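Look over this record as teaching material.
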Amino acid sequence: MLALLLAAAITQTALPLNIGGRVAPEPEGGYDFGWPGVYFEGRFTGAEVEIAVDTKAEHLAVSIDGVRKAELTKTGDMRLKLDRLGPGEHVVRLDKLTESQTGLARFGGFFVEKGRALPAPMRPRRIEFIGDSHTVGYGVRSTSRDCTEQQVHDLTDTSLAFGPILAGRLNADYRIEAFSGRGVVRNYNGTAAGEPLPFLFPRVIPGLAEPRVANDAWKPDVVVIGLGTNDFSTPLHAGEAWADEAALRQDYRETYVTFVQGVKASRPGARVFLIAGDTFAEDVAQVADRTGAKAVRITDKDRGACHWHPSVADQKMMADKLEEAIPAK
């Protein structure tokens, strides 16, 4: 059956792609991807389309014309055919829902046989979201704060996080570089010392040291950064790099300033917004003042999802606050 499908694919036409998020092109074709919220879009005429994908351990969603048609939750290399789509133009989309901290998935392409490939959809704005589990949408589908590790994986859905919600409202393409548990200088409970989010940020795939980003042509109009919860949510332990909380906060501010300045330098003209949470609002305000970014205060979350993370309602509220802060044009 696999040989027949591969043989049939030779006569098919691959759709041009709009890619949201960092991806690593494969020599044999296709793309590896690991950051949250990566998506692929294609446009075509015809009544059917095939999607080639290796999900690995990730959950992916397939949509046609903005309507979700399937969620791929089983591990493996597959070709999914969607037919009886009706006449005219269609847009097919594949979204990464879950977070892969060590692994990746692989996208092989969208293909049409009887239809016609069209230029990929593009949007007039671009937004980049950099952050932690709140940006990931960690366990957001859960209605309970008590979750197993497997439930966290299965109930994470980055498409329900504030970034994609906001991008949809503003008709923007987006990319997300976020990693649960990471901070600016310190990670949750002091884990993975020396490897906070800025350490991972240059990677094309977060769990792999190589490849690294070089000469990235994707330039956003707006950058939203939400980092700090993990730096301060747990007390310092003996043996960590900071003598006390004051030293930690000083390091946080100085390192954050350097990180924001680097982001701005590599994204000329982009407006930068920093999310300020309850435990580090004053620190973020200082960073914003020193870098020309704008701090956006977000508080009063119900945190009803896995392990006291933002719920679906919280994510919508966060999108509301950012939408108020970001100019319409």
Q: What stands out?
A: The chain has two domains: 2-117, 125-325.
